[in-house]
Amino acid sequence: MAKTEQPKKFRWQAHKLLLAATLAVAGVFNMVSAVLAEGTAAGTDISNTATATYNDGNPANTFNATSNTVTIKVAEIAGLTVTARPVIDGNLGAIEAGDDLTFVFDVTNVGNAPTDVFVPGIDDLLKTNFTPGTNAVKVYQADGTTLIGTGIVPSGGGTLTQIKGTPFTIDPDKGFVVKVTGKPAVGTTAGSTVSVRLGDTTNNPDEGPDPTQNQPDNSDGALVTDLRTVDPTPAPTDDPENGEREAEATASGIFASSVRPLALATVLKTGSITNTGVPNNPADDVITYDLGLRVANTSPSNLFQPAALEGTNVTLKVGNAAPAPAKRILVSDAIPAGSKLSSVSTALPAGWQAVYTISTSNNPLDPTVVWTTVQPTDLSTVKRVGFIFNGSIGATGTTLTGLKFNVVSSGLPAAGGSLYNIAQVFGQTLGDPATTPQIIYDESGDANPNNFNDDNTPPAPSGSGYVPGTNTGIAKPATDGEDTAGNNTGTGKDGELNVITITPTTDDILNGTQNKPNAIGPIDDNDDFTNKSTPTPPAGTNPATPFDFAPVTFNNSLSNPAATGFIAETTVEPLSPSQAELASGKPAGTYGTNTDIPNGTVVTIVGNGNTAVYTYDQTAGKFNLTSGSRVNFGDVPAGVQKDYTVTVDLPSTAQLIGVSIPIVAFPDNNPTTQPGYTGETTNNITIDRVYTGFMSLVKKARILKKDGSLKGPDFSVNPSVNAAPGEFIEYLIEYKNISQALTGTGSVTLTARDFVILEDGNGLTNSWAGVTTHQQNTTSSGGRRYFYTNSADASRATAANPTEADSASGTVVEKYENYVPSVVPQATGTFGFRRAVN
Q1: Does residue 284 sit in helix, strand or coil?
Q2: What is the pTM of this model?
Q3: Per-residue pLDDT tens over the stretch 724-759
Q4: What is the pLDDT of residue 278?
Q5: What are the residues whose beta carbons fall under 8 Å from the beta carbon of 440, sequence distance 6 or more?
């Protein structure tokens, strides 16, 4: 755990200007300088630069990223938030009829001056499936046990002062607790939400990133529904500069008549092209689908207890026996349109058996749909292939794999296309006592069981939402979501489609990524790519400063895809983008522009015992062979692969750019008198793209007034306002993986692994640790956050460590880290933290 100390007492400094002015009016000028000296001096620069480390999947390849520097000068002025805790059930179990419920809200003054607060009464709280008790709303001091006065909030609401009977305010960064008690409403159905909302910010224009917190209360008057600040000493000269503030929060739980056993099944699916056939024929590729099944041992919802999965009725024809209902677990997959079944694995997991149906019904469980264990002679008649299991599978959380079958893309047009399909699993909860047990059902494409939604809510109150005739398992590409990565990471409602895209090539030679000469890029096999990064400059290097980067080496492969014959005098060399466009017939910009490659870039190709060194002439738009001899593989027989390396050495150039080097493979028509590429029409291009770092960091900041409202522009790399003592600086780091995303097959992308943002208040050009104080509201779009008392604390940002809670406001925090396990190409994210100016 990160070390903590007692909060430093800086808050009183926020009143220095007022005190100084008072002393000046009173003629006590000799004390003014002493008062102001206690705070951060005006004109002090508060500087912030973020750094980050990451790797490309190989922990040995560590890269650095550095943001721009944001500098804010210290200038020479009511805020409110509320959060809801988890609902408290009096019997500590699931929320059931008659239970005593307590909804608890923590209200915090995030301004810089004491404030009274108006608390809505029970008449003005938004309630769902909730019946309040007597004196249902009470207020407590921050300890949650000491009442403020009687604690009873009138049904029409009241201020803390009215409730206590004497003046009562909440100091800055302090708070109080509101508790609302009652029972679930009679007639609430299982799975329904039981909730209470305290406050109402819906009638105001949104301000800031969260429309429910610290919103202006100056547009709706003194509405009794608002949880809002109230100036304890109202006067024209003493009103908060930003007016009164309000906030809202909703506390909720899920009603369960009882926690019921439920089998939580997840069907998993991956697809891959295992045989590409003839390159220019998209109708002879073989695709292997590998299905898996997991029965979860943890539940996404407290409504359900994980249970074992058993079979449900499937009309099954075993051998030559007559079809009959049989209780089996069934994993089913429809043969995708544009293909036909070619084979099914015989090496299935123990107890599993392949089944087939030629039925065109939209309901795999319909009694008229006959599944058979005998593989049809004509595989083109098979509409679905399935795998059955006789027995039950315990809720172990273990994934079973190996339910494999192959299809051939026999129905795709000459231009190629995509195969879409989605797998299903059918079963029942073991021991389901219902007269008609519910069907346990899941679709592939994500890792959620029973088609649970991404927020862990069930698809139906019963925990399984199978609808016969609707959940057909037949792909609908126009409306269904897609598992874009093809690895069960899809998001959205229900399951997501597995997509295999096949693009034919008319090339007689293939040239691509390592061991994948047939790799496909965004368009076809002439723009497949390998993305790699140079080693990056040391942390703290200005990202706008050019740098002399170390060379980067790529591994490429070429092959002769023909069934017979050979490719003569096969050669590889680099091309400029414009030359690559002419060679491939691709539109302008496919490979970038000639000026994208820095002048003087050196490309070294090694293969077949030859080394060729090329130097780029940007003015001429071409690579010149400056030493060595061209890499020529001679005659490449049919079906043979050849490997070679390409090393790119950039001159001093900009950071965070991608430089695409097209590499062409071709049979050299005249290697003796006119060696090299001279327009040979038989050619194939792959791209070796070198990035000079691929994770960008952009530092922004904004100033919040003492009440939390925005002062000046929103997040900016160059804030145009100063920050006064007591005001807040919110820093925001925006990060992005700038590398190109994969849209084909076989290309190599750059995913940032173990990405760690470091914000050290005493490091590099940073100076914020000693002149600002940590405030809660640290945010991150992903990963884990870590808080350190001292800059010298050793890093704990490893995957094995738990996420640490946001340190309390005022706690000494001199260093922050945000650990994100992976950032895929083109993905973005943010990390933000708030500091109060001392």
Answers
A1: helix
A2: 0.54
A3: 778 899 999 999 999 998 777 889 999 999 999 999
A4: 74
A5: 262, 263, 265, 309, 312, 425, 426, 427, 428, 429, 450, 464, 466
Length of the chain: 838
Whether 490 and 483 have beta carbons less than 8 Å apart is answered as: yes
691 CB neighbour count, 10 Å cutoff = 25
Q: Is the pLDDT of residue 12 over 60?
A: no
Nearest-angstrom CA–CA distance, 291 and 401: 6
Closest CA to 363 of 517, 465, 473: 473
Task: Evaluate if residue 790 carries a pLDDT over 60.
Answer: yes
How far, in Å, CA of 286 to CA of 278, rounded?
Answer: 11
Q: Which two tokens stand for residue 462?
A: 């019963």
Q: Distance between CA 136 and CA 125 in Å, rounded? A: 11
3-state SS, residue 396 = coil
What is the pLDDT, as a whole number, of residue 219?
A: 57
3-class DSSP state for residue 22?
Answer: helix
What pLDDT digit, counting tens, does each position of 362-418 carry?
Answer: 999 999 999 999 999 999 999 999 999 999 999 999 999 999 999 999 999 987 889
* Residue 772 token pair: 């600002």
At 27 the three-state DSSP class reads: coil
The pLDDT of residue 11 = 31
Asked if 773 and 795 count as a contact pair (C-beta separation under 8 A), the reply is no
Q: Burial of 120 by CB count in 10 Å (0-12 exposed, 13-18 middle, 19+ buried)?
A: buried
Query: Would you say 248 and 199 are in contact if contact means Cβ atoms under 8 Å apart?
Result: yes
Q: How far is the C-alpha of 686 from the C-alpha of 778, rounded, in Å?
A: 44
What's the token pair of residue 757?
A: 């943002």
